[in-house]
Design brief:
Shape: elongated
Strand content: 5-15%
Helix content: 40-55%
Radius of gyration: 27 Å
Largest sheet: 7 strands, mixed
CATH class of the largest domain: Alpha Beta
Strand order of the largest sheet: 3-2-1-4-5-7-6
CATH superfamily of the largest domain: Vaccinia Virus protein VP39
Length: 394
């Protein structure tokens, strides 16, 4: 209930704060009779005359502002409720269908069943694939397109988003909250909560970006096995499962124990892949690898020193001659290149520049998904870059 009417509650608390401030100021004002100087308790609880009318106007105005905010966010609340229900449905459907597909594939590979039973298993696998395709398509239509679309933005947010020189407060708030968590929050719990409620890596736009990344790497890593590979920030293992067949050995790591458990479950069919829990910001990466993947990793880190430190660790984890594969979302154009983005190293452009500023590296491929001048509602443009480690010097 509180979450549903939080804007009105905010207006009430704002009016209450204005009431208290006005009462405190009244007690500090000089009077003609010092013995009649009102106390703070009297001004708070028993005001009369003009002060009472002014404070009631304060509270009324603040409640009106809260009501306007609540009204403007009505559509967004409905969309968020729908997203939450779709996410629950998706999570409940994906795990069983994945298990059915894995078990069917194991039975088909074993060849111990008679032909009639094999045909039944193939039919079951086909139906499971149809269900799996449906669950992957559903968030594309109900989750991703709603983000940033006009259906999700109330009239007040529309006005501010179109006003020249202004950006949405949420874009700054995401960065500000990330900086707060870097200093005082429990980052593992933060990412666990995000994996439970927010992030969905199986929507079509994400899968298409993963395919673009693999194609880009294939141009430079060759058609054979890609040797020893490290993926930092594997999330729930959707990209990891696509990457594993190309690798002789694959180590995937993530800060979130929940994400690691889901990634390990998804990668069970691949004996060469293993998943470990690791916080790259506070620990070291285990050894050196032929390929190191860092997809959407640096944007989860905040603070110049921390980003530079992790960039050093990523470069040092690549063997000389090996490849570092980077992908990250770009900031909105109006925020890109601002003094604070450069100072804090925020956004995909600044992150890539930070990686290329390390010694002994060379950019050999850079792309953009979606392509320039192509927009996908609610989905930011992502940089895709392949960097070669040309020496072991620092």
């Amino acid at each position: 209930m509180i979450g549903r009417y939080k804007e009105i509650l905010f207006g009430f608390l704002l009016g209450l704060a204005m009431w208290i401030v006005d009462a405190q100021m009244r007690t500090m004002m000089p009077t003609t009779s010092p013995e009649r100087q009102p106390t703070l308790a009297e001004e708070l609880f028993t005001p009369d005359g003009l002060p009472l009318m002014i404070r009631l106007l304060y509270v009324g105005f603040a409640l009106f502002v809260g009501w306007l905010l609540w009204r403007s966010n009505k559509r967004e609340r409905a969309a968020c409720d729908l997203e939450h229900k779709v996410a629950i449905f998706h999570e409940r459907m994906v795990n069983p269908t994945t298990s059915i597909l894995d078990e069917c594939n194991m039975l088909l590979r074993s060849s111990v069943l008679p032909d009639e039973a094999m045909d039944i298993v193939r039919d079951i696998r086909g139906h499971a694939r149809q269900i799996d395709d449906f669950t992957k398509e559903l968030p594309r239509y109900l989750v991703i397109p709603g983000r940033g679309g006009d259906a999700r933005i109330g009239p007040l947010r529309k006005f501010f988003s179109r006003a020249p020189g202004l950006v949405r407060v949420s874009e700054y708030a995401d960065i500000a909250l990330g900086i707060v968590y870097e200093g005082w929050g429990d980052r593992r719990r933060r990412f666990d909560r995000a994996h439970k409620r927010v992030w969905d890596y199986e929507v079509r736009v994400e899968r298409e970006r993963y395919a673009r990344v693999l194609r880009a790497v294939g141009q430079y890593a060759g058609p054979g096995g890609w040797g020893e590979v490290l993926e930092v920030g594997c999330a729930q293992g959707v990209f990891t499962a696509d990457l594993a067949p190309h690798c002789q050995s694959l180590l995937a790591c993530d800060i979130s124990p929940l994400a690691c458990a889901r990634a390990a479950e998804r990668c069970r069919p691949y004996a060469q892949a293993r998943v470990e829990q690791c916080d790259v910001a506070h620990g070291n990466l285990p050894g050196q690898f032929d390929l190191v993947f860092a997809l959407d990793l640096l944007e989860a880190l905040h603070g110049r020193e921390r980003v530079m430190d992790v960039a050093d660790k990523l470069v040092n984890a690549v063997r000389p001659g090996g490849l570092l594969v980077f992908s990250g979302s770009r900031l909105p154009e109006r925020m890109r290149g601002s003094w604070w983005a450069r100072s804090l190293i925020e956004g995909g452009d600044m992150h890539l520049a930070c990686l290329l500023d390390r010694a002994g590296v060379r950019l050999i491929h850079q792309g953009l998904y979606p392509e320039d001048r192509r927009e996908i509602p609610g989905y930011p443009h992502h940089l895709i870059a392949v960097i070669r480690r040309i020496s072991s010097e620092r």
